[in-house]
Amino acid sequence: MSGSPCRKTRKAKKHKMNSTLKRIASLTSLCIKGPGGKIGILYCFIVLALNLVEIQLTLKMITWNKDFFSALEKYDAQAALWQIGVVGVITLASASQYLIATYIRQLVQIRWRTTLTQASLERWFSNKAYWHLNTDENSPLDNPDQRISEDCRIFVDRLTGKVLDLFTGLVGLTTYIALLWKLSAFPIAFTLFGTPVVIEHYLVWTAPIYVLISSGLTHWMGAPLMKLNVIQQHREADMRFALARIRESKEAVALENGEEAERNIIDRRYKRILENWRHLINREFILGIFTRPYFMTVLRIPLFLAFPAYLMGYVALGGLMQLGSAFTRLVTTLSWFIFSYKELAELSATANRLASFMQQAEAIGKEPSPIEWNRSADKQLHIRDLTVRDPAGENLLHLPELIVKSGEAVWIDGPSGIGKSTLLKTLSGIWPHCEGQVSLPPGKTLFLPQKAYLPLGSLAECIAYPDKPENPETIRELIKKVGLTCPRHEEQLRQATELGSDYRLSGGEQQRLMVARILATRPEWVFLDEATSSLDAEAEEQLYRLLRTSLPDTGFIVIAHREPKGLGNYRRIDLWNRKPLEIPNENLRVALA
Ligand SMILES: Nc1ncnc2c1ncn2[C@@H]1O[C@H](COP(=O)(O)OP(=O)(O)OP(=O)(O)O)[C@@H](O)[C@H]1O
Asked: Can you give the residue ranges of the ABC transporter domain (predicted)?
C-alpha cells in the first residue's frame, strides 16, 4: 500500500524537518570543533546562567506587581515609595544581565562564525569547488560566494540567539507554571449545555490552550514565508551579481555603449525581486493580521482572564496584578515560537543552504578522476590515449600519444572551438569530461590563460602569484625585463593591482605582467593559452626569447593562433588537419576525434 496523499505529505514534511534538524546539529558541531569552539560552549553556559538570573528577576517583578498595587490599594504612600526603589534595583540588575549576556553571546558568535566561514572557504577552495560547482540560475546552489559570508553570519546569529532562548524558555516555563499553579489555586465554575463545570487552576490551563491555538494559526498562515524568503534572497543575490559583473566588465560595457542593455538586464532581475517581494509582503500582511493584534493584546488578555477571580473575591487588586503578570510571562514564554517564527524560518533555510553547499563541495573531492594520473620519473610529460569531450559528451580531441621532454617546446594551433583550451584544462586536472592517462613530471607547473589575472594586492604579490612575493628590487628588474619600463607604468601597475583597476593597463601590458610572473615563479612546466595574443609580433618574439633563455630547462606547451617565433625549436601540433596527423617525432601522433 502506498498510503494516502495526506499521509505522504505529512511523512515528507516530517522527513524534511528531521533533515533540517540534522543539518543544524551537524553545522553546530562543526562550530564547536573549531578553534575556541569549546570555549564558545562555556560562554553559552554563562549566557544560560545569566538568563536564569533574568528569570529570577522576572519572578521578583511579578511579586513587585502585587506589593506595589496592594500599597496603592491601601493608600500606603511609604510602601509605594519603597516599591519604586525596589523596581529601580530590579531594572538595574535586569539591564546589567541583558548587556553582559548579549556581549558574551556576541563573543560566541565571533568564534563560531569564524570557524564556519573557514570551513566553508576550505570546501570552496579545496578540489577547486569554486570552479566545479554548478552555480547557474537553475542550480539549487545560488551564488555560493555570497552565501559564504551572509549565511555563516545568519546561521550563527540565529543559533546563538534562538537556541539559547529555547533553553531559557524551557526553564522559565516550568518556573512560571509552578508559580501560576500556586497563585491560581481557585476554580472557575460555569454551566455548559446544562451541565455544571468546575475547572481548578483554570489560568494554568488557559495559557497553553491560548498559545497553542495562536501558534497553530501562525504556522498555518506563515508557512509559505519560509519558501518566499529563500526565493527573495536568491533573487537579491542574482541582482547583486549582475551589478558586480558590470563593474568587472565596465570597459567593454562603456565601449559598446551597453548601458541600456545592461539596464534592461538589471531591470529584469529587479522585476523578479519585485514579483516575489509582493508575494512576501502579502503573506507578511496576512500573518500580521493575526500576529499584530496578538502582540498588542498578549499583555491585556491575562488580566481579562484573571478578572473573574477578582470578581469572585479570590484575589484583591494586588493579587490580580500579580496573577496578570505571572500569566503574561507564561504566555510570552510559550509564545516564543510565534515571536521567533521568522528567525526560525531563516535559521532552517540558512542551515539547509549551507549544509547542501558543503555537501556538494565535499562530493567533488570524492569523485574519482577520469584521468589516470601518474608521476613520471623521467622528467617527461607523457600523455597517452587522452580523449577530451564537451559537457554534452561529444568528443572534441583525441591524443593517442604525446611525450614532451623537459626544456622542450610544443606549439598547438587549430581552428577555434576545436578544444585547445579544454585540452589545457584537462591537463590542469579541472576538466571532468575526459579519459586517458597522463604522467606528470615532478616540479612546478603554471597555466596561464589569455585573459591575464591580476589578483588584488601589491604589485609584488601580483607578479609572484600564487607564490609568496620576492623582494621588490627583483620584481622591479623583472618588470623592466618584460618591457614595462616607462615611468608612468609604476603608478598604473600599482593601481591595477592594489586597487583592482586592471583596465588601466592595456591587454598587452597585462600579458607582459604574466610573462614576468613566469620569470618570477620559474616553473618547470608552462602551459600558455593564447597568453601573448594581445602583443604585437615583435614584442611576442622578444618575450618568448626572454623566456627560453631565462628558463632553458622549462617545458613550454603553447596554444596560439600565430607561430610563436622566439620559442626556438618547437614541435607543432596542427589541429587544422582533419586527418590523423603524423608528426616527425615518432612519439607524437595527434588525431581529431
Ligand atoms: N565550461 C564549458 N561548458 C560548456 N562547454 C564548454 C565549456 N568550455 C568549453 N566548452 C565548449 O568546448 C568546445 C571547445 O572549447 P575550447 O575553448 O577548448 O576551444 P578552443 O579550441 O580553445 O577555441 P578558441 O581557439 O576559440 O579559444 C567549445 O565548443 C566550447 O563551447
From this structure: 381-593
The verdict on 83 and 115 lying in the same domain is: yes
φ, ψ of residue 225 in degrees (nearest 5): -60, -35
Same domain, 141 and 236: no
- Alpha carbon 515 to chain centroid distance? 35
- b vs e for 522-549, b when ≥16 Cβ sit within 10 Å of the residue's Cβ? ebbbbbbbbbbbbbeeebbbbbbebbbe
- C-alpha span between 544 and 423 (Å, rounded): 22
426 C-alpha vs ligand 1 centroid, how far in Å? 12
Residue 330 lies in a domain: no
Long-range contacts at 40-44 (CB < 8 A, ≥ 24 apart): 40/107, 40/108, 40/111, 40/112, 43/104, 43/105, 43/107, 43/108, 44/108, 44/160, 44/164
Does ligand 1 come within 6 angstroms of the Cβ of 420? Answer: yes
Claim to verify: residue 540 and residue 555 sit in the same structural domain: yes
C-alpha of residue 547 to centroid of ligand 1, in Å = 28
Atom 1 of ligand 1 has which residue's CA nearest to it? Answer: 391
Same domain for 110 and 248, yes or no, is: no
Q: Is 391 in the pocket of ligand 1 (CB under 6 A)?
A: yes
Q: Is residue 337 part of a domain?
A: no
Contact in structure between 351 and 20 (CB atoms under 8 Å): yes
Regarding whether 129 and 81 lie in a shared domain, the answer is: yes
CA of 7 to the centre of ligand 1 (A): 49
Pocket test for ligand 1, best of 135, 421, 423 (most atoms within 8 A of CB): 421
pLDDT for the residue 587:
43
Query: Which residues span the domain enclosing 412?
Result: 371-574
Work out how many domains the chain is built from and give that number: 3
Which protein residue has the closest C-alpha to ligand 1 atom 2?
391
Nearest CA to ligand 1 atom 4: 391
Q: Domain check: are 551 and 526 in the same one?
A: yes
Say if residues 229 and 280 touch (Cβ distance below 8 Å). Answer: yes
- Segments in the chain below pLDDT 70: 1-10, 13-14, 134-142, 298-299, 337-339, 486-488, 490, 496, 498-503, 577-593
- CB-based contact 345:155 (threshold 8 Å): no
Residue 237 CA to residue 235 CA, distance in Å, equals 5
Ligand 1 neighbour 422 (Cβ under 6 A): yes
The verdict on residue 593 lying in a domain is no
Distance between terminal CA atoms of the chain? 52
Atom of ligand 1 nearest to the CA of 423: 18
Supply the pTM of this predicted model: 0.72
Residues 361 and 395 in one domain: no
Instruction: State in Å: Cα 423 to ligand 1 middle.
Output: 9
Task: Tell me: ipTM over 0.85.
Answer: yes
Give whole-number Cα distances, 538 to 411, 481, 532, 556, in Å: 18, 15, 11, 19
Same domain membership, residue 156 and residue 58: yes
**According to the model, what pLDDT value does residue 593 have?**
39
Q: CATH number of the domain that 418 lies in?
A: 3.40.50.300
Cβ pair 220, 124 in contact under 8 A: no
**To test ligand 1's pocket by mutation, which of 418, 533, 574, 592 has the most ligand atoms within 8 angstroms of CB?**
418
Using the mean position of ligand 1's atoms as its centre, give its distance from the Cα of residue 558 in Å.
16
